[in-house]
Structures are given as structure tokens and as C-alpha cells.
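Appendix B, example 12.
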Amino acid sequence: MLEIWLALCRSHQISQVLVNIHAHANAVKSFVQAKDYGVQVTVVEEQELFGSAGTLRANRNWLAGDTKFWVFYADVLTSADLGAMLRSHSPGCAATLAVYSVPDPQRCGIVSVNQELMVTGFVEKPAFPAGNLAFAGIMFGTQQLIDAIPDKPQVDLAFDV
């Protein structure tokens, strides 16, 4: 699936990719080094898990100079139109999340939004879901998001930021 993500990045003119790894680190490193995917790939191994936001904080130097960036969860298979998502990003927002409707919201993390489509909360596998929008593992972020990450050991984008 990583090859699909790298191809998606290339097709959307994303030229630099940071791949954060923990499990199967050697296999991922070998895969990335095996050929040219048309994007510059930097691999960072996370010895202990920092959480999704902690990873962004730990790699803020790599992001330095870029005021906007993408986050992709590599275990998600998609052919999303990243250009359409980017066009829907409102100036001044810290991030834009891709969401999708799920038939059984009790089986995944659910995103709550208000009438302006601003995220108001996340609930993981809710017993009594208030909606059916699940996070799709794709996010467009800004420096404002990085600045909002709390300084603690493990930080999750969904629950801490």
C-alpha cells in the first residue's frame, strides 16, 4: 500500500514524503530503497510510539519551512482527489480532514462536526454514535496544527489536539 500512496503523492505533485515507521522497520526501509518512486522519501524510525500528533511534533524540523503539509495513514487504501480536498481547505483552519460515511459507526472512530463542518469531537467506536462520519486517514495540516500540539510524551491528533 505504501507504493500506492507514493504514486498518489507523485500524481498530486507532492515531491517530498516522510515515512514514519515503527513496526516492520527493516522491511519498509528495504522497500523504500529498492527503487525510485518519483518522490523524495525520508524514512524516520520511531523506537517508541509518540502518537499521531507526537510524530508531527518529533518531525517538526523536517516540516520547517513548509507551512502546509499532508498526513496519510498508510494502512488506508484510496484514490482520493487530494486536489479537491486542498481546494476545500478554509484559510485560517489548522487542518482539513477527509471523512466518509460508514454503515456501522460502532466499528470505527467517529468524527463529530458542527453546521460549519468544523470538527467538534472524536469518539472511538461509540456505543451510541451521534453520527456516521469516520476519519479516512487523510489530513491536510498547517503550522497552526503543529503549534497546537501539547508538549507531552504521547499525543494523538484525534483526542489531544
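The mean pLDDT is 91. The domain at 2-160 is CATH 3.90.550.10 (Spore Coat Polysaccharide Biosynthesis Protein SpsA; Chain A).
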